[in-house]
Each structure stands twice: as structure tokens, then as C-alpha cells.
Amino acid sequence: MIFSLFFLLSLFVGTIMADTECPIVTSSGDRRQDKNKLRLVQYNAEWLFIDYYSSANCPGSGCSWSNASEAQTHMSYVTKVIHDLNPDIINFCEIEGCDELNMVKSMLNDATYTPYLKKGTDSATGQNVGMLTRIDPLVSLYRTEEKYDYPIQGSQCGYTGSGSTGVSKHYITEFKLGNMNVAFIAAHLLAIPTESSRCAQREGQASVLQPVIADYISRKYEVIILGDLNDFDGEVLDVNNNKPTSQVLNILKGNFGEYAGKYELTSVAESVTQSERYSDWYDSDDNCNTQSSKDYSMIDHVLVSQGVLNKIDNVFFYHAYPESCVTYNSDHYPVVIDFIDI
């Protein structure tokens, strides 16, 4: 009943203050119960919108949740997953704003979390990336507004047009984790892995982020880059051996592009059994058959530098709920990384 009143109030406020952001770090604290351990979660929560966003008509016919009641139910499902996982830092993709982060925090009834979100530039969907964290970042969340021309040199996407792109949904910040200075880069790249124009544009987006990574590495930072990258890893194959047509993962890892060989990032999924490497369900054959071999893939990734990799104790994909056309759960699964001595 209390949440219902809070939810109705948020709808009223949301008509005035939709797409709220909260990028500013105003305090420094570490609210973990065990400061020797850290659980990091990457989660595309699938249209985690409560405030009405008119450009996407969401909640409504423009997204997965056709009305406010469905959106509220979806949030309760997402919150249960977070409660079960109990992360110290969780990065969300497809979240609308800080209103939603605060609602999740309220539903968790957990004052140890602080929300941070830097609003992006995807005005069509209104989707953003943001986090709840028990460790405050060292710097306020920021973005790069650099652009990159595509197709990039050496692209094999098959796109014959041309354009310039930025990264509409991302943020950058820094943490002190143990003795390490860590750059933390969260991104949600353009969808549809093998479509030629999207492939080419996504390579451009990765090329925007690559110099950010290289700069941090040159300044002796460790790096974590995570998010829904909407592409496959040609080295760490997923459950269905999906292979990329793009160089997106290779660019971000430091294996391709202008900064190739200047740094090296590793996918945390390499330590996960291949049969468990899937983070997304897509009804590819439009028949709601979740047993189709085509329907599962790994497009959510966490890439780390060696110092961070050395602190990993365990990695898994949280597959505790079934996917279907009628579920209120997300169409993605969380990626979970447990660190020790950090």
C-alpha cells in the first residue's frame, strides 16, 4: 500500500520532472558490510520506466509495459532480482532516470545504496545507464561527446554508406577499490548485432570509447567497462557460438583500431562454462519458443584490465528466472562478478 502511494506520487511528479539525473558525487563513503569483498552486477533491466516518457510512449504501446500497472509490476520483479543478488555496485541499462533508481532503492529498503546517473542523448527512447552503489565514486559521472566517422578502417560490417556517431548512452567515473584507482565506464551500444548499418555505427561508438580507455591505462588506472554492448565476442563464444561481424569487442579490448596494442582488456566471461554464457533472450523466430537454439546470446559484457582480473573470485550469469513472451522479468540476465581483497 505504501509503495502504491509512492508510485502514484511519482507519476504526478514525473509529469513535471521526467528523465531525472543525479551525476554529482557529494560525499565519499564505503557502506559495504564486508569491505574485503565486492559484488558487481551488470543488468539490462528492460525499459525500467515509471515516469511517462512521451517520445517513446512508455509506459504504453511504445515499450514492453503497456500501462503504469505493468511498469510497476516489472519494477517489483527487477527489485526482487537485485534483492536476491545483493550487489555492492549494480549498473543498469535501459533505466529512465534517478526517479526509478530511487524507487528501486526504496523498494529494497536499503539505505546503503546511493543512486548515480548521467543523462544521455537518446531522446527517441529516453533510456539511460545508471547505478546503485554502496561505494561512492571519486568523481562525478561524466560523458564524452566525441564523434567518430564510420565505417571505420578495416570494417567488415558490409555497410556502404557513411556517417558519424557518438555514444548516446554511457557514463564514465572513477573508484578507489582497495589499492587500485579504477576507471569505470558503463555503456549501452546500438542494437541489432549483425545488421550492417548498426554494425558499422556500433564500431564507431566503440572507437569513441577506445581513447578514453587508453588514456586511463596510460595514467596507470585499472579499467572496468561494462554494459549491454549489443554484440558478440569472437574470442569468448556464447552458448550458441554466435560470432560477430563487427570489431566492437576487439576495439574495446584493445585488439583492433587506432589504439590496438596500447592496452589489453579481458572478458570476465572467459572463466564461465560456455553452456552458461548467455545474457539475453530474443524471440528470433517470433513464436515464443524459448527452447529455440537461436534465442539466447551473450551481448552484455564486462571487460577488465589485469589488476582487476587478478581480484576476481567468481563470475556467473544469473539464470534464476525463465524467459517468455509474457514475463514481467527482464529479457536480459544479470552478469555477476565477485571480487576479493578489493
TrEMBL record:
<dbReference type="InterPro" id="IPR036691">
    <property type="entry name" value="Endo/exonu/phosph_ase_sf"/>
</dbReference>
<protein>
    <recommendedName>
        <fullName>Endonuclease/exonuclease/phosphatase domain-containing protein</fullName>
    </recommendedName>
</protein>
<dbReference type="GO" id="GO:0003824">
    <property type="term" value="F:catalytic activity"/>
</dbReference>
<dbReference type="InterPro" id="IPR005135">
    <property type="entry name" value="Endo/exonuclease/phosphatase"/>
</dbReference>
<dbReference type="Pfam" id="PF03372">
    <property type="entry name" value="Exo_endo_phos"/>
</dbReference>
<feature type="domain" description="Endonuclease/exonuclease/phosphatase">
    <location>
        <begin position="69"/>
        <end position="308"/>
    </location>
</feature>
